[in-house]
Amino acid sequence: MQNPNKLEGNIIPFIPEGDFYFSKGVEAYQKKKFDLSLKWFQKAISEKPENPLYQCQASIVYTEIGSYHLANQLLTKVLSKHGEEYIDCYYLIANNYAHLGLLEDATKYAQIYLEKAPDGDFQEEANTLLELLDFSEEEEEDDDWTLEEEDDLIIYQETAFYHLEREEWEEAIAVLEEMLTLFPEFSQARHEYHYALFFIGEREEAITLEKEYLEEHPDNLFSCMNLAIFYKHEDKQSKYDYYMEMLANIYPIHEQQKLRIAVTFAQVGLYQQALDRFKMLHKSKLKGHPSYYRWYSTCQYYLGMEDSAMRLWKEGCKQHNILSVQSPAWEKGE
User: Where are the TPR-type repeats located (predicted)?
Assistant: First the structure.
């Protein structure tokens, strides 16, 4: 995916005089102090909430730290109000969707960008992204979603993500059920629903639904990960082995999927394999995920790296309040 650092010259042509918060945000961003940069940009936005330039730059910082949904919320807002003046937002949204593994959405927005700006600053990057995604030409029924509908989808995604990361299963299920009613073709929500359903105690139903989905979509990565975890908890060794052997040979290119597969290995107790996968991740893009800190530190602890595990856990607690009120997984016997 495109490195957001390259976007700086295209999105920020100059620093407006007198905009102190924005200037400080740019300075921190250039020094790769992304958490500090975001705080400055948020201050700038609070001063001028309708300034599209501030929102675009804040979205780029969100992309850097892995909060792709939040980045797209800002970019969608800019497009809805400023449209043709900020066409680059279409490419930035496509790039974020690609990182999330939402490849159909990434394809759609990259194509919109190229239609609106065939000679735009990101023309080469958009074409490269489309080649990487390598999608078929078959169009989905939801290709004509309005920006308002896309904005609603992003809000649902972010809300569900919030509850899932905090293992608030009932809350997650309520959001996901409504999401599936409104956006039945959004497959990721279906897998997340099965996952939450399993851990709320509806194990048989979760397994049945996931198996049915996999029959219709063979080799679906999320189905394989879910079923591996489900069968581990159900002590169905042969079925668990089947899916884990499959996952051992899969190396996704998208950061979100890389994290999900690393967490899967950790959840089933394959800590060395999980550690190897965690080492491949870009930490700067995953700071918005409590699961990164929870399961990476767990792997370190069970592999004899107690000091490193505690340092990572404490760092995660500073990033996420939900971790600060929990005990590390190894203290709970997970």
Answer: 18-51
pLDDT at res. 18? 38
Question: Which amino acid would we find at residue 243?
Answer: Y
Distance CA 331, CA 176 (A): 30
| Helix segments in the chain, DSSP class H | 8-11, 20-30, 34-47, 52-64, 68-82, 88-100, 103-116, 123-133, 147-165, 169-182, 187-199, 203-216, 221-233, 237-247, 255-267, 271-278, 290-302, 306-319, 321-324
Per DSSP, 144 falls in state G
For residue 10, the number of C-alpha atoms closer than 13 Å in the C-beta half-sphere is 18
Q: Is the pLDDT at 145 greater than 60, yes or no? A: no
| 278-331 pLDDT, tens digit each | 998 888 778 778 889 999 999 999 999 999 999 999 999 888 877 887 888 888
Query: Residues near 166 by Cβ (< 8 Å), separated by ≥ 6?
Result: 290, 322
21: left (phi over 0), alpha (psi -120 to 50) or beta: alpha
Give residue limits of the domains in the chain: 4-137, 254-334
Tell me which residue of 264, 248, 267 sits closest to 256, measured CA to CA: 264
Contact 60, 7 (CB under 8 A): yes
- Sign of the CA dihedral running 36, 305, 281, 199: negative
Percentage of the chain lying above the pLDDT 90 cut: 39
d(Cα 195, Cα 48) in Å, to the nearest integer?
Answer: 41
SS3 17: coil
CATH code given to domain 4-137: 1.25.40.10
Written as one letter, the residue type at 252 is P
